């Protein structure tokens, strides 16, 4: 149990250790959230391995209550948690594209995932199993790569790791209004540029100028229809006759995902499996 707790602490440190990218307060909020998720996942995994199925099920329920009782987000509806990586799946992760020593894959081009569309959290977990995460698009070059993939593969849409900061710890003044200043890449922990301006150095606005209500994105449109928040960022391929553009979308919608290497998760598996080749 002590070893498991140490692993959790290591995982949380690795997953969230980007002090250069986030200011301390937001980082603390994200750490608390990641810690809750990682701890609950570890507890659930330990329970699954050591107890009978009924006991494990009860433990899962208890862990889930702990998460949802501490400001768990709308993404975690259903009691699901952020997964930890698996060593074998990391060593054998699909490698479709490489940029600067960093690998990517498209879920629908992997035979075992070809027919799978996932909601946002499951999409991240599909990637995380392989020491990757849903793609974080921090640069215009990376976005151009995504546009190229969607166009050439004729994909209607994909999930990214983009997430609206609308959970506990996000009610800070500098993140308001949240639709403009409250977006971040959950895979890398990097904050997005203001959503109502072309990001510095990009030369074009990646967010769509239109959507369901013909408003510029992000617009949280679905909330006005059925009170579901559009808390997750997907790239849509001309769904609104708008080209290949970013949209805020309800996290329950199911899509393929582009995964990219997660250095913290790769470091975590390397640290816990000394002889592994990743
Ligand atoms: Ca929208």
TrEMBL record:
Coiled coil location: none
Keywords: Disulfide bond, Signal
Protein's name according to its UniProt entry: C-type lectin domain-containing protein
InterPro entries associated with the record: C-type_lectin-like, C-type_lectin-like/link_sf, C-type_lectin_CS, CTDL_fold
SUPFAM superfamilies named among the record's database cross-references: C-type lectin-like (SSF56436)
Signal peptide segment: 1-17
Keyword Iron appears in the UniProt entry: no
Domain C-type lectin: 99-260
Superkingdom, natural source: Eukaryota
PANTHER family: HL04814P, RE43931P-RELATED
Organism: Daphnia galeata
SMART domains per the UniProt record, alphabetical: CLECT
């Amino acid at each position: 149990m002590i070893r498991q707790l140490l692993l959790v602490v290591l995982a949380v440190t690795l997953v969230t250790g980007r002090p250069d990218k986030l200011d301390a307060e937001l980082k603390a909020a994200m750490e608390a959230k990641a810690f809750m998720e990682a701890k609950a996942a570890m507890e659930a995994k330990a329970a699954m391995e050591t107890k009978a199925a009924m006991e494990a099920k009860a433990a899962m329920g208890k862990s889930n209550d702990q998460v949802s009782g501490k400001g768990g987000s709308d993404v975690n509806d259903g009691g699901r948690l952020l997964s930890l990586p698996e060593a074998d799946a990391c060593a054998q992760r699909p490698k479709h594209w490489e940029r600067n020593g960093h690998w990517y894959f498209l879920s629908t081009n992997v035979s075992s995932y070809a027919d799978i569309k996932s909601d946002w959290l499951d999409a991240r977990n599909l990637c995380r199993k392989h020491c990757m995460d849903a793609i974080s698009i921090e640069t215009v070059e990376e976005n151009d790569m995504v546009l190229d993939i969607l166009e050439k593969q004729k994909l209607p849409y994909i999930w990214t790791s983009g997430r609206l900061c609308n959970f506990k710890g996000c009610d800070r003044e500098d993140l308001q209004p949240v639709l403009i200043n409250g977006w971040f890449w959950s895979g890398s922990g990097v904050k997005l540029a203001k959503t109502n301006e072309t990001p510095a150095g990009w030369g074009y606005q990646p967010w769509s100028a239109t959507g369901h209500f013909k408003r510029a994105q992000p617009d949280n449109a679905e909330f006005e229809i059925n009170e579901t928040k559009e808390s997750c960022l997907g790239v849509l391929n001309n769904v609104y006759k708008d080209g290949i553009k970013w949209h805020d979308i309800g996290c329950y919608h199911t899509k393929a995902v582009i995964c990219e290497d997660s250095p913290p998760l790769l470091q975590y598996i390397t640290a816990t499996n000394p002889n592994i080749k990743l």
